[in-house]
Design a protein that fits this description.
homodimer; about 650 residues; mainly alpha; 6-stranded mixed beta sheet; two-stranded antiparallel sheet; 28 helices; about 5% strand; elongated; transmembrane helix (chains A, B); secondary active sulfate transmembrane transporter activity (chains A, B); S04_transporter_CS (chains A, B); transmembrane (chains A, B)
Amino acid sequence: PTGHHQQCSSEKIKSAALSFLPILTWLPSYPIKEYLFGDIVSGLSTGVMQLPQGLAYAMLAAVPPVYGLYASFYPVVLYTFFGTSKHVSIGTFAVISLMIGGVVVREAPDSMFMLQANGTNSSVPSLIDTEARDARRVHLAVALTSLVGINQLLLGLLRFGFVAIYLTEPLVRGFTTAASVHVFVSQLKYLFCVKTRRFSGPLSVVYSLIAVLKDITSTNITALILGLTCIVFLYGVKDVNERFKAKLPLPIPGEIIVIVSTGVSYGMSLFENYQVDIVGTIPSGLLLPAAPDFSVLPNLVTDSIAIAIVGFSMDISLAKIFALKYGYSVDGNQELIALGLCNFIGSFFHTFAVTCSMSRSLVQESTGGKTQIAGFLASLVVLLVVVAIGFIFQPLPQTVLAAIIMVNLVGMFKQMRDIPLLWKTSKLELAIWLVAFVSSVLLGLDYGLLVSIGFAIVTVIYRTQSPKSMILGHIPNTGMYCDVDEYQESIECTGIKIFHLNASIYFANSDLYINTLKQKVRYDVLYLTLKKHTVVRLVLLDVQGNGQVTESQTESDSEETHFLRTLCAVHSIILDFTPVNFIDSVGAKAIKSVIKEYAAVDVHVFIAGCSRTLLDELRTLLFFSGPVTPDIVFPTVHDAVLHCQHRRPRPSSTVV
Amino acid sequence: PTGHHQQCSSEKIKSAALSFLPILTWLPSYPIKEYLFGDIVSGLSTGVMQLPQGLAYAMLAAVPPVYGLYASFYPVVLYTFFGTSKHVSIGTFAVISLMIGGVVVREAPDSMFMLQANGTNSSVPSLIDTEARDARRVHLAVALTSLVGINQLLLGLLRFGFVAIYLTEPLVRGFTTAASVHVFVSQLKYLFCVKTRRFSGPLSVVYSLIAVLKDITSTNITALILGLTCIVFLYGVKDVNERFKAKLPLPIPGEIIVIVSTGVSYGMSLFENYQVDIVGTIPSGLLLPAAPDFSVLPNLVTDSIAIAIVGFSMDISLAKIFALKYGYSVDGNQELIALGLCNFIGSFFHTFAVTCSMSRSLVQESTGGKTQIAGFLASLVVLLVVVAIGFIFQPLPQTVLAAIIMVNLVGMFKQMRDIPLLWKTSKLELAIWLVAFVSSVLLGLDYGLLVSIGFAIVTVIYRTQSPKSMILGHIPNTGMYCDVDEYQESIECTGIKIFHLNASIYFANSDLYINTLKQKVRYDVLYLTLKKHTVVRLVLLDVQGNGQVTESQTESDSEETHFLRTLCAVHSIILDFTPVNFIDSVGAKAIKSVIKEYAAVDVHVFIAGCSRTLLDELRTLLFFSGPVTPDIVFPTVHDAVLHCQHRRPRPSSTVV
């Protein structure tokens, strides 16, 4: 056995190593002939997309463009080793970049870097020490990324991958649509080439929009025309790609517009002659690694948690879609570890936080990417540009990047179509979608995410609290019991009421259970008080005040008598516990007290269809004591009914 | 029919009036002979308790003592008209008073009323303009009370009485125990007669305790001895009352100590000779009504919501206990309206927020109180003191009031016994208790309440996510199916797996459902990939990475083959949907995709025991489309099994 044990533990270590470094499981058996061509084509296509997206998203993250290229290289290489999804394209992503940008601008606003205070003379814009500002912002973005990585790594090591389940689909879609709104609004200033300050925090979308509209008169017409041309071109290419998906061997790379517009910008000297903002300095080569500046961390903790979770949820939701499509599985915890390492190690090489981008991933998959090799090759394309020819992008107008970002958002905005669809299928999920969207647009992405997760959780409570109740009747010649209101065939058993409510019984709905039971069994406080010989009129008024038996309010005297007679005839109540999945002490107490209440007027209550688990719970809660014995529990409703029928019904109570 | 209709609406108006003014329902038929004596005795006893409690709780609320007497008079009279509980004693209450005091001191701290700045010379305490300070604090307390009343009134009119259901018993008990800790700590300074400032907000308990301990050397020994004597006396009386409950006609009124100690204090001139703090000026007569100062409201909104909810939850939980005991019903919404009117109208007469007090209510009930008349008489006792003999309480030492408050807390502290009890019955509810206690002690009562409600809601999610799964087997000669691991008699049907998981299927546990299903059916991605002719080794490694079928890790080759053979034999899977109470789109998609997944390998999935409601939900979610037809749904597990057995099992798949 010792040998076996040793073998076991060595196998365990091996399996742990394999699960930590998934590349060891797939690379040794990589089928070169089958896969390599697809991976190369896909890698090149994705790499071409990484370039403009990296530059553009760096603008969102409020750092100089070249840092977007770094972020499109290092983490992508790392993911090849640690990632479990074969099809997602890791790298810069609009939403995450925007979140980083918000934090960075909050911590290092322009106002901190004024060279001269021109408070009184507002027509002359005060000069900003952009170099110091950008250096500070890079510091902040890198430190934040480091923290995001640590968060993701910790969550992964603590096996917290399951948190993604709280991010239900309507929530994620509403949230990402809201994120697109943020991204779209943030790009308007680049499209119009107007200089407005950047806002963050609640209502920042509204402030940004107002700021752009106020300054709309200072629009640079050249930039706007160039931007709009790009949008039309890119949208056209996108459309063609989708329409002729089957006929095209590869999607047409719309990103070619970057090369063209860079050429135009250089040729026409757009910056010098037309004041069109361009990308500007792109230093060649890589920077030496350096430890992030941890002194700024305390302010960034909450932001980093939000970014870590959003990044992970984007990654895992896309990874799962591909895994399902191609029949392999992804591991949430390992994905967290992979993303954590990408961001943490990356941050030492001056990257900002990454996750997978939906647009790139779709291209990587559709161009024939089979494994992580495609992502690796894409990163090599980026590396080539960074070390050799980055400088040629310097004259690229910012408005072109804004156009690329905006067109990439089209897919996200199409999620708006969820609204009519969800209206038809599930109002509650529509509510989740709308809450996620509205709160994320108005409160900002971090608070929005928090509010919408809270709301999604509350909807579950709401569902358990809005159950359907019914009285069951016997379907003759079977052992089945169905809702008497729904099925004509079902017949109520004389003197027996079978009550069914499809919910568990716990604090938030035990009152509901008891009230519905009493209403349905039409056997309320009314009768109990009658037994105590109080005046009928008084009792009826009390009941009305309580609002529970208001139906009886306008009943005539004869109806009242009939009603009472029906009540007296019931000698047994069976509670169908089949839908009860759990019970807590409040629920157990409520059921117990209702059993006692009915026992006081000679009505016996039985419990049917109680699962083994539930029975154990009831025992632990000391439910069976006093008049409540385990004898009242029956495996099925039919057993309970047979028991009631064979029991000699006791003589009706002595009232009247 | 018009006449009938008119009659109906006039009856409706009448019933609305009756439900708004419950006194109209019970006073006309008040059985004087039976009830009046009990009500008088009970009213006098409760009135005697209202006096010292009013004085003491005014100290907690940081307003002059006489305002506690006002709060023990006006709201009590109002409750007689609007309240639905016959046994609760409305008036000042420690927890609420403490919450008011916290807000009042935060908004009008001593430091705002310094007469001279003695910052450098700390040995001489700076003088405080107590008159201005107290006037300001009364203003604040009254405005806050007005707002609390408006909140409660609105909640009641909007029929929000149901919110009380979220205040589950363990939560309320943990919370009130924490409140007792706050009250106890706040009284220490009066018991020791040391002058420390008052703290509010998170960790205020800790700060207060430290402040008292630091100043412990300046304890006034006379006051301490007097206080301890009172504590011992009051505790003794309480103990005797409980021990000889059956033999005593009336509980001994321990509050007599107030008279005695007032006499002692007056006779020995404790204030002048021993510097013992006394109650001080109690003006005779009532103040003219005045509108609260609404200018201070904006700062108090969130506090007022917390106080409104805590006040209501105290009232309704106690009212329900008595209603259950005496067989009448209380209406949550009307109680909210009653409390709202007590506080709102009361605030015009300079009262601070009230609710029912547990100690007084128990006395009111045990001394024979039958209706709200008892409370009304108690208020008359208070009125008598206010207008005629209030001044005689002026020499009453504050340490005696502290002693009364502390001894009244004994019952609350006994709730600590819940901990071992809950440990045995329900760990989850113990967690709610402890979270409510710890968070309310450390974060303060407002944030503590918020955190604990949030936690209680999350436990429900947790419960739905920690279900029990099982494979069902047939019990021969019955139509019943039970857990094969629990019941030896149950036999698995050849080729059919019946899966049961007692939870609803929604976003937070749909993954769990699918994973457990695959684990239990032992028919994982493994086999699916095998069908696709990939190398077995690779697949096994993949599966390990995923962590789902790790059992197979150390299996030998022959075991593996056997395992695969068993898998191939399964031709049908039946999902027992009896415990599924609701499903959302994420759940429906998950089930649909698993059905398709199995269909790809010729395994048919059926759904059994699906309720009518659930079927409707599935239809709305467009579940039935493509290969998934309503034919796969069966009313019971047995029907589904019979169908599977009569279907000619398809030839086993072509693998191996």
